[in-house]
Amino acid sequence: MAFESRQDAMLRIMPNGRYTVEAIMVIICATISLYNAIELLALIFTSSKRRNDLYFWSLAAASVGLLPYATGWLIHYLDVVGDVPDMIINDIGWMLVTTGQALVLYSRIELLIKSQTVLCLIKWMIIVNAGIWHSAITVLIFTIGDQQRLETNSAFIKVEKVQTTVFCVQNFILSGFYLWKTNKIIKKTTPQHRTTRVLQHLIFINILLVLIDVALLAVAFTNNFLWQQGVKAVGYSIKLKLEFAVLGKLGDFLCKGGEPVTDAPMFGFVEMDPEPQSKPRPVQPIPAPETAHCQNNRKPSSASVAESSRNRELVSDETVVDKGKGVIRRTLDKGKSKCADDCCNNGVRASN
């Protein structure tokens, strides 16, 4: 009975010429997932500042995986090229999406968890799950026919349920670490602290990720393979967009200059934007003491200038200019010798 219902679900057009609900669902889900994948790729390659870390490449690989995953599922539903090519395309996309999405969470969790033992266990959990279940599903795809895969008690359906459960539990563990560490950091910060909002967003996003995984797990046990593929395609694309939105901010707050901040407490975030440098003021040259002394001596005081001009008036009548020889000669009387001497002395002081 379940087999017949699955065959009916694969009908695309009803006798009256209208598309079935399943056909509409397939087209809508495939379109949404493809749109999200293209948008994510555009955002990743245009807004990412660091392209040499695990976060960037895992997010890019998972976003690229959405394209063959949704395309292969759509080709399989429309029965365009046969069972084998579309299942290969779908399987490649599924492997990139599931493991890539887990690596995205792992790439940022190391900013919150400093224990190398915990990080090593998480890393090997992702590697072992990927190696076991990706290989198992791939082998079953090529060893079991399309009709047998649709049966309720087939090995493919059973393994499909188990691997969906395992990957959901894996995501629960990763999201649980995020919730635990961010809640611990928020308790140490003041409510007015500006980083509290980012951490609250991180908690909210991880709760949404858990709810999406629960929805995927619930659909997997409904024995409706068609609806399961549609919900997976849309669910994984939404999860990647949410992770990209919040984990990028987390990396910007916990990093400075591309390197993790290890010498500061985890609840003390730093700014990424450098402070504007003030323009250097031009340095005015300071004159040397000898130069300043000479300049001061060269500037006679007002009293000296007045006295010199008065003395020059006294001897101006006795001054004789020899224009032929270009020599100025002063002839002084005996009674004016003292005035001339004083005048000369003052003139010498002024010239010095």
TrEMBL record:
The chain crosses the membrane at residues 20-42, 54-75, 87-106, 118-142, 162-180, 201-221. Residues 277-288 have a biased composition (Pro residues). Residues 309-318 have a biased composition (Basic and acidic residues). Keywords: Membrane, Transmembrane, Transmembrane helix. Residues 271-318 are annotated as: Disordered. Residues 21-253 form the DUF7703 domain. It comes from the Eukaryota. The keyword Lipid biosynthesis does not apply. Residues 293-308 have a biased composition (Polar residues). InterPro entries: DUF7703. Signal peptide: none annotated. This is DUF7703 domain-containing protein. It comes from Fusarium longipes.
